[in-house]
Amino acid sequence: MIRKYVSLAQMSMQNSIAYRSSFIINIVGSLLLLVSMMYLWKAIYAERTEVGGFTWEAMKAYLLITFISNSVLSFTSEGRIAGKIRDGSVSLDLLKPLDFQKARFSETLGTSLFEGTVTIVLTILILALFSGVQMPVGFTAWILFAISLLAALLVKFGVVYLAGLCCFWTDSFYGISLARAAITNLLSGALAPLAFFPDWLKSLCLLLPFQGIVHIPASIYLGQASSMEAVRMVAVQLIWGVVLWLLGKLLWNIAVKKVTIHGG
């Protein structure tokens, strides 16, 4: 059974490589945004050495983590989920001996493998352009950061999957996608570190799953949490990943009842 999902992941990766124009456009857009943010924050740090507890070296690292998080699970994966619902091909998936959610996650992993490789290469090039980026201290920090990034992928998939299923009730996928992206970027800390937020908004963000996409990986990378605290934060990511997965199954069971297959 697992072999079927592995095959889906492989086919998804192959499709991403073969039809890479969409990804290239998305990654160029993300790259331009990153460079713009780099120069914006560089100007802010021109007259100071620290802002909100972040040095310039730490802020550069934070922006790179945001770039990686937004690039690994791109619009391509999100559009694939909603596209099956909007064009009606979801009805064919109901006839296959595969779980719809697991199949979409397998495809996302396959696509992310290719996109992640490209993102890492681009990140190395950016590191060469903007020297002096803060690095994790110690092997344990690197391991926890890597695990946290994988957990962030699970959390983001959960959010994206739920947003995609909303297309059962509306054809406005781009509206849903834009709203999802705006909420995710704000509450995850992608637009600015949560440390810069008012206390009430920061407290709210720390209660929601979005923190697991950028804030937690960045906090672990920058050494803002001890090893035990980092383990706890990864556990929070995994718990939210499971909760979002279960919510996705629940919403799917409700939404699939709206599918009508004519002729049988």
From TrEMBL:
The chain crosses the membrane at residues 21-41, 61-77, 112-133, 139-161, 173-194, 234-255. It holds the Pfam family ABC2_membrane_6. Coiled coil: none annotated. It comes from the Bacteria. The keyword Transmembrane applies. The keyword Transmembrane applies. Keywords: Membrane, Transmembrane, Transmembrane helix. This is ABC-2 family transporter protein. It comes from Paenibacillus alba.
